[in-house]
């Protein structure tokens, strides 16, 4: 029996059902026809954030950051490298806490950058501080194996 997963489109936010075994085959959105996985972090605003964490059946890794933050800018290319390796099994997103202050407040983000991993709409792990791609990948894998 084939298991289908709900995947939120990074372009139009439509919820798509994708058979689990087809995740790695470059699935496209049924609404906008663009790829469901880009290999790049998806920038999310307040309006889009909840849909992505609540409706995605795959884990969602969030980088809470700000443009004025030096460590955030240093970590950004490593985070993008990690996105290439984590997708399609993990959705990788970014939230600018300067532009989306209520999200930072809602999730009690006290330092940036902070990574948070969500499953089924709930935060399951958090890691503050800048990391390189290898450490991001190792941390995510450790959390997924729990």
TrEMBL record:
GO terms for molecular function: metal ion binding; protein-disulfide reductase activity. Keywords: Disulfide bond, Electron transport, Metal-binding, Redox-active center, Transport. Gene3D superfamilies: Glutaredoxin (3.40.30.10), Zn-finger domain of Sec23/24 (2.30.30.380). CDD domains: TRX_family. GO terms for cellular component: cytosol. Residues 12-145 form the Thioredoxin domain. InterPro entries: Thio2_N, Thioredoxin, Thioredoxin-like_sf, Thioredoxin_CS, Thioredoxin_domain. It comes from the Bacteria. Coiled coil: none annotated. The keyword Disulfide bond applies. Transmembrane segments: none annotated. GO terms for biological process: cell redox homeostasis. Belongs to the thioredoxin family. NCBIfam families: PRK10996.1, thioredoxin. This is Thioredoxin. It comes from Pseudoduganella dura. The gene is trxC.
């Amino acid at each position: 029996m084939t298991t289908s997963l709900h995947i939120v489109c990074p372009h139009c936010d439509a919820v798509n059902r994708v058979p689990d075994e087809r995740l790695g085959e470059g699935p496209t959105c049924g609404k906008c026809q663009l790829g469901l996985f880009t290999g790049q972090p998806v920038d999310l605003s307040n309006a889009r954030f909840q849909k992505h964490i609540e409706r995605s059946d795959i884990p969602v890794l969030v980088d809470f950051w700000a443009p004025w933050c030096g460590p955030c800018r240093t970590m950004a290319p490593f985070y993008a490298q990690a996105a290439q390796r984590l997708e399609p099994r993990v959705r990788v997103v970014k939230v600018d806490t300067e532009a989306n202050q209520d999200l930072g407040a809602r999730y009690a983000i006290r330092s940036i950058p902070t990574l948070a991993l969500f499953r089924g709409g709930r935060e399951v792990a958090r890691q503050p501080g800048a990391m390189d791609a290898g450490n991001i990948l190792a941390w995510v894998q450790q959390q997924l194996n729990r």
